[in-house]
Structures are given as C-alpha cells and as structure tokens.
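Bumping with the actual sequence this time:
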Amino acid sequence: MNSLHRRAFLSGTGLGMGAMAVNQLLTPDLFAQPGKAHFPARAKQVIFFHLVGAPSQLDLFDYKPELQKRDRQLAPESFFAGKRFSFLRGHPKLLGTPYSFRQHGQGGTWISELLPHLASVSDELAVIRSMRTREFNHAPAQLFFHTGQNRQGKPSVGAWVDYGLGSENANLPSYVVFLSGNTAGAGRSLWGPGFLPSIHQGIEFRSEGEPVLFLENPEQVDPVRRRRIVDGIQAMNQEQFAATLNPEIQTRMQQYEMAFRMQSSVPELMDLSDEPESVRKMYGDTNFARQCLYARRLVENGVRFVELYHADWDTHASQDKRLRENCRAVDQPIAALIRDLKQRGLLDQTLVVCGSEFGRTPMLQGDESPQRCGRDHHKDAFTIWMAGGGIRGGMNYGATDEMGYAIAESPVEARDFHATVLHLLGLNHEQVTFRYQGLDQRLTGVEPSRVIADLLV
C-alpha cells in the first residue's frame, strides 16, 4: 500500500488514533501514561503560586521587632560593605514595617495585617523563613527557583514532575499555567521543558475568553471533520517518524491528539456556571480569583501540576500602595482555595506552594516617606510557604536574624525545596533523571540536596 493510499484508507475508514495505537502502527509509548512513583506518595498533584517580582517577607511573614525599633537608623556596615545589590547605593537606612503583626493558629504563626484571609487558614501552612538563592536579579533568580539553574535551557519543576509521573487524565494536559499581570522576566522558560521532550512544557490557559488560544474549530469544521483531518496528519507524521526516528515528531503527534481531546473537555471544565454561588463568592470575582477556582477544578480532574503567576510585586518605591493592592488581590482567593480543597477532601492529596524568586532587604530604598519608600532585592533570606499534600500544617521552619538580614537557622536551598516537592509526590530526586549531553541530568543537580523532613507529616 503506497503512502497516498494508506492515508486515504486511514481517513476514509475512520480508523482513529485509538485503533492505530491498538494495531501498533504507532509506538506504544505515544500517549503520556501515569508514571510510577518510587515510594508511596503523600501528594498526587501540585498547585504552585509564583508571586512575580518578590513580595517583602519583612512586611508579610517575618516579623522583626528589633528592626522596628531601629527604623530609619543607618544600617550596620556589614549589611552592605562588599555586597552587591541591584539598586542600593551609599550607606542605606533601615526600614521597619509599618504594618501590624499577630500570631495566628495553634502554631502561633506571625502574619501581617495585610493577609487576614490567609491568617485564617494558618494552621494549614508550613512557613519557611530561611530560603535563600544565589541570584539577586529577577530573571536569573526566577529561573533558579524553577529549574535549579540561573540560565535558560533547563526543565522547570513542573516539567520534571510531568516527566516523572505523567498524566492522570488523557483529555487534559498534565501541566497547566495561568498568568495574571505581566509575564515574568524569565518568560516562558519558567514553565518550559528545557532538554526534556517538549510534550512536558506547561500549557497556558486563560481565565477569560477562549480558555486556550485556537482551541475552537473554525466555522464549518465539525468534530467529525476535525477527527479526519487529525488522523490524516497523524498518518503523515507517523511516516516521517518511521523514516527519521525523531522523538519530537512523537511529541507533535501527542500535541495534535491532546488538542483534539481538549476541544471537548476544556470548555466544559472552564464553565463555572455549575459552581454554587457560595463557592464563587468565597473566591471573589476577579481574574485571579477565577484562576484559583480553575486550579481546584483542574486538580479535581487529574491535572498533575497547576502553576499560577501573579505580578507585579517588585516594590523599589511606593511599596505601601502596591503591596496593599497585591495582597488584596491574592489573599482571599488563595485562602479560599485552601479552604475549598480541604472541604472537598482534596487538600491531603494536593500540595500547595507559594513563593517567589527572592526577598526584600531590611534597608530602605528611595524616598524616606512612608508612601514613597521601598526595598531592594535580597537573595540571602526570604520566605515561602507550603500546605496540604503531606505537609505539617501550623508550623514555622527556619529563622532569620533579629534584623531579618541573614539566615540564623536551618537554611533552605532551591535544590532542597525541589527535592522535598518531588519526595511528597513519591519521587526520589536522585532517580528522576534524563540523559542529555552524556550525563544523567536531574532537577536537583549534582550538589548535595536534602528532603526537609521536619516539614513532613
């Protein structure tokens, strides 16, 4: 049977991709299958918040009374002598927080007045106040936090999770991304596959308009006709793969098939009309609130990794205005998501993470007035939090010194954070590898990495 006749046969008889796979006309591993965990997992899926630009941990989570006392005094010389910052110059002054803090929950977690909704679920949170990074500018630090490297070309943590575990729902992508505000400086590399097959990249969803761009069929193209078109293209792709053995052709075939399946599964999933009014009110009526509600629906339907980006938290000046606005935007929806997951029995199997690329200095930047002052980037100490999915809630891990400048106990590196995320999903970070450039590459690299055991239930 020549190639033309074979393509006509496949299209004309309606022999779809499922039958083709059964008949082994395609390679058996064409469609992403759930991977095998190395040991029993505490979490099945991840919801990952990245607050683009880096919120001030000293105004939200890391309460420092001594810094308050020394507000507007000259900073110790050791804070800046021989150190590199993005914008700080000369002899800066110290900046205490203008916001009140209270302890919340059984763990006595200090949380700022700017996050009252999150404070109400503090017993679900493990707050890590001892994160540090090597990078003090946004794009390389964002890459470092997501990939373990400060340059492009490495897979994101979401791509590694997808590669290690695969999908639980053949009709939805395993890795979904939502953007709120400007795209982060490092761009789409933050959810990119790097050297992994490109099927593992994050798929961008939208919370307004068409959920995925170009998902709908053009006019006069019904599902039956689309199925015939896809089958014909797949037959030609299979011929090319048989001739070249290029794995990216397999990826392209998976993407065509996934796109076809998503045409029916995604619109229904993204229709919030069936959500009770009380649930929608709990989340709020903003774009980011809808994204949080979509995140719950996605993990409820087997999506492995959902990442939500919220911008812009870069507060070199006018910190008070921007910090208040951003906290109002994320506080209620994130707390609602945690509460909703718990009510539905999903929090125990869903790891929720909220972090950023670095923190903010205890030194003042710019104008001294409360309305116009800000803080520069700070790589040596910042805060993230985790909840659900095997995390011990209501706890505080690590600490900074009395001024919030340096880590005083239990430092956490990005690779430790990554190792812990993989561990909660049942993956040994040393065994999740991919052969590239003659080496068995892994998310945590070659430096010593540890699972943060104290965080685990």
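The tokens above came from a reply further down the thread. DSSP finds twelve helices and 16 strands in the chain.
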